[in-house]
């Protein structure tokens, strides 16, 4: 199949769509989200968008490439760490050299983590959904959310872990699921 190199312009055109879909996803995991004031909703979503993108790239990229440093940005676009100049191939971009240095540094750090995560064991669809829910609940502590709202996120995370353990015991009939649970926790922590 043909894939296209993502560029800076395309990447930011996707953000309104990603933001809208993330809003829907957070509401499905966390029904109380509608009760949160709009300014805090925006703060929470802004905190989650990078994590969500990273997890989505992981999900789309797992097992698809022969070499490290490549990730799927959408169904038809990829980012290749070895070709950052293609990402910045946009007319009128100011301070392109500065942007290139920042991109290379950030991409290097991110892709090192990303490539290590890509080596982890396969997880089931249920575990992937749990990872999404856990990631949503692992908010940056610098957000300084009101205790009531933070408690709702904490309660949701506890519920997800309890449901995941039921899944391991009843559906997979596992007695020892510590390594599988550890993989889910590692994956959610890596993207948070």
TrEMBL record:
Residues 29-189 form the NR LBD domain. GO terms for cellular component: nucleus. The keyword Hydrolase does not apply. Pfam families: Hormone_recep (PF00104). Keywords: Receptor, Transcription, Transcription regulation. It comes from the Eukaryota. One of its GO terms (molecular function) is DNA-binding transcription factor activity. The keyword Transcription applies. InterPro entries: NHR-like_dom_sf, Nucl_hrmn_rcpt_lig-bd. PANTHER family: HIGH ZINC ACTIVATED NUCLEAR RECEPTOR PROTEIN, NUCLEAR HORMONE RECEPTOR FAMILY MEMBER NHR-86-RELATED. This is NR LBD domain-containing protein. It comes from Pristionchus fissidentatus. The lineage of its organism: Eukaryota, Metazoa, Ecdysozoa, Nematoda, Chromadorea.
């Amino acid at each position: 199949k043909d894939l296209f190199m993502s560029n800076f312009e395309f990447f930011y055109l996707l953000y309104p769509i990603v933001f809208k879909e993330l809003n829907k996803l957070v509401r499905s995991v966390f029904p109380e989200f509608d009760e949160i004031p709009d300014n805090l909703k925006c703060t929470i979503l802004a905190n989650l968008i990078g994590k969500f993108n990273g997890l989505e790239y992981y999900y789309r990229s797992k097992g698809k490439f022969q070499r490290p440093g490549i990730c799927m940005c959408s169904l038809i676009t990829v980012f290749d760490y070895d070709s950052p100049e293609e990402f910045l191939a946009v007319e009128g971009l100011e301070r392109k050299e500065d942007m290139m240095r920042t991109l290379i540094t950030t991409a290097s750090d991110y892709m090192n983590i990303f490539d290590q995560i890509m080596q982890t064991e396969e997880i089931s669809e249920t575990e992937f959904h749990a990872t999404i829910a856990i990631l949503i609940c692992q908010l940056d502590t610098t957000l300084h959310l009101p205790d009531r709202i933070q408690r709702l996120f904490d309660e949701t995370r506890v519920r997800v872990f309890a449901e995941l353990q039921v899944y391991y015991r009843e559906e997979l009939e596992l007695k020892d699921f510590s390594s599988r649970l550890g993989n889910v926790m590692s994956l959610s922590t890596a993207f948070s």
